[in-house]
């Protein structure tokens, strides 16, 4: 039987690299999708290419959509500083409707490929409090995907997988290591420099560093 | 009380122009969003700009996303001919996941603008049989939007309006006329020429022509 196809959203960060390794272990034929949406940390996209190559995918594609032009986030607007300590509520690093847009683009590609699976590395535990990382959001997108496409009308199924949803950062890292992810290739920092070196101070860096510490594994992150 | 804001998806065709006029009559402050997704009928985007200006919007914005690079549709792939007679099933002019992507981008802009309304001119009667024009698809996106955004978490509401959903093409045209839409500015044809002149033979042209005939109104369409 031919392997089933999966479109895997790949940002170049730690979580999505782990999600890709998970999908590969599940036996899916993996098509990795990165999206250049105007993120200030473009080093992430270079990292995505390295991760895709290192884990072995059928194809890695980068689509462009200019969410940055809409503004409203420190991740796309260099005039808004990236906060270096956590606060209450949804942080300014949240990009409006980002995961909805990313999943929509993945859905489009899945439909063209005839892929029955879509994998996203969102995580609702050690995360930044974004609304579109919650289990109820993923469930709602699953329902939308069930109705949105040609395949849906013609009776095919499309399953959304968010394997990391309920894992701690330490669990993610331990599982990724087991699956052979080289985290030295990944970039999580919200304001990495052009060489992909991390600031060590932003929310994403703090979660990542704490994850390696808690997993009791060496942290291969290159800091600036 | 300040007018409520609405993001209105505006393709430049007959339906979305009517949806914009509907939103304006509802008293919304309208922000029109067009999306260049690789459609072969780029004359539609010129039409969108004319319609936005003619109906008066706060802002008209065009975002770019290259769905065309994914292939799979006669509307984005010039190597696939546009069919000139209807057939069974979902036609090859269907663009994979297009309305999901369009609504996602509108959701992103709505979130940045603090808009509580999102308007799309989909129609489930005189249409081409696309899965993402059905009422159940719109309902699923409404549920997704309820969960996806910062506003959702903070208690604001986001309402999806599809006012044309259950109207016949003739009803749409009569209502648009009443609201002052100049259909001479709109382009519906799947393969309009660079000047926006319609082929008169594709599915979209046939539905549009039949609509004017059934509404017993003069058809201002410019045919090639």
Provide a descriptive summary of the structure in words.
Two copies of one chain form a homodimer. The radius of gyration of chain A is 17 Å and the shape is globular. A five-stranded parallel β-sheet of chain A has the order 3-2-1-4-5, sandwiched between helices. Chain A has 224 residues and is α/β, with parallel strands linked by helices. The first copy, chain A, has one domain: Rossmann fold (3-Layer(aba) Sandwich), CATH 3.40.50.620. Chain A starts with a strand and ends in a 9-residue tail after the last helix. Chain A has seven helices and five strands, in the order βαβαβαβααβαα. The first copy, chain A, has helices at 14-25, 43-55, 98-113, 135-148, 150-153, 169-178, 203-215, and strands spanning 5-9, 29-36, 59-64, 117-119, 159-161. In chain A, helix 1 (14-25) packs parallel to helix 2 (43-55). In chain A, helix 1 (14-25) links the parallel strand 1 and strand 2. The A-B interface holds A 61, 63-67, 69-72, 89-90, 94, 96-101, 103-105, 107-109, 111-112, 131-132, 134, 136-137, 140-141, 143-144, 146-150, 152-154 and B 61, 63-67, 69-72, 89-90, 94, 96-101, 103-105, 107-109, 111-112, 131-132, 134, 136-137, 140-141, 143-144, 146-150, 152-154.
Structure characteristics:
homodimer; 224 residues; alpha/beta; Rossmann fold; five-stranded parallel sheet; 11% strand; globular
The shape of chain A is globular
**What CATH first level of chain A would be assigned?**
Alpha Beta
Distance from N terminus to C terminus of chain A (CA atoms, Å) equals: 48 Å
Name of the CATH architecture of chain A: 3-Layer(aba) Sandwich
Q: Count all strands of chain A and give the number.
A: 5
What is the third-level CATH name, the topology of chain A?
Rossmann fold
Q: What is the total domain count of chain A?
A: 1
Indicate the proportion of strand residues of chain A.
Answer: 5-15%
The strand order across the widest sheet of chain A is: 3-2-1-4-5
Q: Please, what is the average pLDDT of chain A?
A: 90
Q: CATH homologous superfamily of chain A?
A: HUPs
What's the tally of helices of chain A?
7
Tell me the structural class of chain A. alpha/beta
Low-confidence stretches of chain A: none
Oligomer: homodimer
Rg for CA atoms of chain A: 17 Å
Q: Biggest sheet of chain A: strands, sense, closure?
A: 5 strands, parallel
Largest interface: A-B, 44 and 44 residues
